[in-house]
């Protein structure tokens, strides 16, 4: 039985700009928003949009991601026909290849797509925070008679040169594509979310793979080839919340925006468009009588005895009495001991912040950067970690890292 549209989710990115957070973790598996991981967003969008078949293309550090996805049950994707499938590179009769680019990753999985004989394929990114109705996007694609459609957002003109840009006419038909141009002709930034007619995509993937000069990339190769051949290409305007969380600053900022849904546009409390995730299995959180909590998200299993302000605490975080946490993203299982000060930073999973240590310590007049501490790191008693430090190793008692 054919599927109308299936999703192919690119989740193999290394996420090198997240430094210590992705040394042992694929970027789509990075925790976000208290109880989620980044990949929860495209998976939840799929099920909320009526897409029940998703191929997840993994490559870099896939163990945690594979374990997290499991059989897809948290997203209602544990189906007998369809459901979620993890698709790593594998050895074939012709040899074994890593995914060489975004287009090559889809090319290597043509047999998986053909199992479902879809009319349309939507290509998704596993490293964005976005709540989007893909069924509305597909409706646009059909109404335009498109062969390829790309989701775009208007960005400020002064920032346009940072993006891949679509130049479109008054009917949203794409007439030109610019990849991070010095002199942009448009401010319609590609979100990296595409809908293709499957017959068209298959043809161009095969042609691209046969070209030894190709980078096997959608932005650099497939889209320019479609334009060259005069294909029906359209830009779908998306006006909701979308953020590429590929840097420390953008990841921290997106977590902070979760605490202000009325102004930021990202509402995780929306019952009409839920974001699903795997349950931690922990007990409810406990806030002691001496604790102070202000405008923060406190998740399952947390035990709070100190002061927490404008922060996101993931499952099982412990904040001991006398500790001070502010403007911080603190991932699961971390312990912040008595007297410690943790401000304006991202702390990865299973970290220990020693007594009276300071993370994100900022002297008067210093730049307000985001300090980052990698998973499993121990910060010794009385140690000081500066506002822009990237820590992926244990820090001794009283030591200073700037």
UniProtKB/TrEMBL annotation:
Pfam families: Hexapep_GlmU, NTP_transferase. Its EC number is 2.7.7.27. The record marks 59, 98 as: Could play a key role in the communication between the regulatory and the substrate sites. It is an enzyme of class 2 (transferase). Pathway: Glycan biosynthesis; glycogen biosynthesis. Residues 289-373 form the Glucose-1-phosphate adenylyltransferase/Bifunctional protein GlmU-like C-terminal hexapeptide domain. One of its GO terms (biological process) is glycogen biosynthetic process. Alpha-D-glucose 1-phosphate binds at residues 99, 164, 179-180, 190. The keyword Transferase applies. One of its GO terms (molecular function) is glucose-1-phosphate adenylyltransferase activity. It catalyses: alpha-D-glucose 1-phosphate + ATP + H(+) = ADP-alpha-D-glucose + diphosphate. Keywords: ATP-binding, Carbohydrate metabolism, Glycogen biosynthesis, Glycogen metabolism, Nucleotide-binding, Nucleotidyltransferase, Transferase. Involved in the biosynthesis of ADP-glucose, a building block required for the elongation reactions to produce glycogen. Catalyzes the reaction between ATP and alpha-D-glucose 1-phosphate (G1P) to produce pyrophosphate and ADP-Glc. Homotetramer. HAMAP family: GlgC (MF_00624). Belongs to the bacterial/plant glucose-1-phosphate adenylyltransferase family. This is Glucose-1-phosphate adenylyltransferase. It comes from Eisenbergiella massiliensis. The gene is glgC.
């Amino acid at each position: 039985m054919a599927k109308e549209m299936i999703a192919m989710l690119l989740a193999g990115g290394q996420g090198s700009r997240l430094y210590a957070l992705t040394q042992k973790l694929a970027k789509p598996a990075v925790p976000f928003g208290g109880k989620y991981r980044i990949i929860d967003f495209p998976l939840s969008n799929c099920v909320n949009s009526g897409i029940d078949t998703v191929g997840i293309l993994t490559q870099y550090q896939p163990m945690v991601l594979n374990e997290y996805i499991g059989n897809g049950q948290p997203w209602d994707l544990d189906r007998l026909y369809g459901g979620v499938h993890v698709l790593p590179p594998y050895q074939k009769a012709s040899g074994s290849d890593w995914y060489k680019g975004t287009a090559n990753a889809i090319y290597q999985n043509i047999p998986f797509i053909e199992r479902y004989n879809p009319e349309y394929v939507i290509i998704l990114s596993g490293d964005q925070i976005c709540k989007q109705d893909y069924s509305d996007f597909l409706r646009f694609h059909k109404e335009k008679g498109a062969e390829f459609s790309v989701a775009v957002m208007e960005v400020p003109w002064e920032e346009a040169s940072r993006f891949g840009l679509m130049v479109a006419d008054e009917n949203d038909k794409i007439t030109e594509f610019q990849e991070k141009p010095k002199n942009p002709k448009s401010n319609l930034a590609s979100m990296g979310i595409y809908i293709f007619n499957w017959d068209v995509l298959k043809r161009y993937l095969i042609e691209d793979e046969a070209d030894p000069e190709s980078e096997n990339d959608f932005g650099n190769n497939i889209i320019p080839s479609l334009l060259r051949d005069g294909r029906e290409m359209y830009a779908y305007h998306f006006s909701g919340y979308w953020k590429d969380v590929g840097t420390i600053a953008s990841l921290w900022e997106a977590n902070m925006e979760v605490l202000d849904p009325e102004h930021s546009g990202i509402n995780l409390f929306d019952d009409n468009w839920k974001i699903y995730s795997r349950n931690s299995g922990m007990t409810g959180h406990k806030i002691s009588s001496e604790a102070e909590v202000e405008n923060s998200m406190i998740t399952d299993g947390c035990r709070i005895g100190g002061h927490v302000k404008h922060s996101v605490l993931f499952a099982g975080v412990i904040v001991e009495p006398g500790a001070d946490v502010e403007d911080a993203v603190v991932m699961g299982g971390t312990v912040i001991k008595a007297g410690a000060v943790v401000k304006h930073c991202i702390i990865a999973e299973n970290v220990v912040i020693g007594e009276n240590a300071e993370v994100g310590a900022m002297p008067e007049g210093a730049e307000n950067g985001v300090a980052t501490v990698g998973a499993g790191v121990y910060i010794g008693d009385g140690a000081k970690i500066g506002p822009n430090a990237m820590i992926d190793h244990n820090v001794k008692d009283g030591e200073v890292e700037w």
